Amino acid sequence: MKRILGQMRRAIQDFDMINEGDKILVGLSGGKDSMVLLYALSAYQKFCPVHFDLAAVHMSMGFENSDDTAIREFCEELEVDYHKIDTDIGKIVFDIREEKNPCALCARMRRGALHNEVKKMGFNKIALGHHADDALETLFMSMLYEGRVSTFKPNTYLSRKEIYNIRPFVYITEKQILGAVHKKNIPVVKSPCPADKKTKREEIKNMLNEIYKENPKSRERLMTALQNEENFQLWF
Question: How many Cβ atoms are within 10 Å of 63's Cβ, its own excluded?
Fold first, then answer.
């Protein structure tokens, strides 16, 4: 966890993610990425040079088999305020719309609902658990399926809502997150989504893992390319 905290602190400083008086809400799905992010930010809050408020929000998608008990109890253990947003997004996407490719619509609806609630609750930043491997997967999905060289930004200002999306884990790998889950015994809640592990992103993840096996230094070089200001300026 010490290494994760160090890399997270570097990302926060590099991309000016946290400032004095910020009210930060962690988007907590219950998956390993967001749960470790909440743990890390809670620890970082104790030694951060500036003061910021921290809370967590979980969005219920309306699936019958969903249960937020472990998520709520984890927040109580960390002494972090917990909020829950109840929606029918799962029902709309899978039952009413019967989407063949549900992920894009689901993501748009979740973002909209989350941004609206964050604004109502008086927070100015949303912390998301996207990590380095997510950034590379998004880059390849953009190139292969959209013909664009693009990925998400570590720090994004949403002018219409006057809030920021920050991603403090952009320098951290999925392997590091898995290690933290086991070492710190952090609870992880399985996604109730019917499309879980059956998406285009999962196919890209598997493709990249094969590349990493063939060329062990390829992940590191791809991350260097993401941060290269002289080329595409994807991050800086």
Answer: 15
Residue 189 half-sphere exposure, CB side, CA atoms within 13 Å?
A: 20
Total count of domains within the chain: 1
33: CB partners within 8 A, 6+ apart = 129, 130, 131, 134, 169, 174, 177
pTM of the model: 0.91
Q: Of 149, 177, 156, 151, nearest to 111 (Cα)?
A: 156
The model's pLDDT over 167-202, given as tens digits with 9 standing for 90+, comes to: 999 999 999 999 999 999 999 998 877 777 778 889
Question: CA angle, 49 as apex, 48 and 51 as ends, to 5°?
Answer: 75
> Cβ distance 132 to 223 under 8 Å?
yes
Domain that holds residue 171: 2-133+151-193
Sequence-ordered strand ranges (E) for 71-216:
81-86, 125-127, 155-158, 163-166
| 226 occurs within a structural domain | no
- When computed from its CA atoms, the radius of gyration of the chain, rounded to whole angstroms, is 18
